[in-house]
Amino acid sequence: MNHLLAITMFMKRPEFGVHAENTAAMDWFVIANLGFLFLMFGFFAGCAWMIWRRSTKPESHVKLLMELEEDEAQKPDSKANSAREESAPWERPADWWQK
C-alpha cells in the first residue's frame, strides 16, 4: 500500500515556480479565449454554409428572376436588328472597321 501512495508525492504542486496564486484565473482566461475562437469559427462556417446554400438552392422568386435573365440572354438582340433595318442601304455597319 505504501508504494501506491509514493506516486502522489510526485503529483504534489510545487511550492513556487510553476503554479502561482492566479493560476486558476489564467486557466479561465485561456478557456474563455478558446471558447471565443471556436465561436468565431462557428460563425464564419455558418456564414459560408448560408452563402453556399443560397447559391445552390435559391428561393423560388430568385430562381424565377434567374430564369428570366437567361431567357433574355438567349433572345437575339432586337435593338441591334432594328438598328440594321433602320439604316440606309448605302450605310456601312457600325463595326465595319473591325473585320
Radius of gyration: 36 Å
Overall mean pLDDT stands at 79
Q: What amount of the residues lies in strands? A: under 5%
Give the beta-strand count.
0
Helical content (DSSP H or I, runs of 4+) = 55-70%
Question: Which shape, going by the Cα principal axes?
Answer: rod-shaped
Total helix count? 4
> What's the SSE pattern?
HHHH
Describe what this molecule looks like in 3D.
By secondary structure, this protein is mainly α. The chain has a domain at 29-83. It has helices spanning 2-10, 23-56, 60-74, 78-86. The longest helix is centred in the middle third of the chain and has 34 residues, at 23-56. The radius of gyration is 36 Å and the shape is rod-shaped. The model has no long low-confidence stretch (mean pLDDT 79).
Quick structural overview:
By secondary structure, this protein is mainly α. Helices cover 68% and strands 0% of the residues.
Question: What topology does this entry show?
Answer:
Elements: H1 2-10, H2 23-56, H3 60-74, H4 78-86
Characteristic terms for this protein:
single chain, 99 residues, mainly alpha, 4 helices
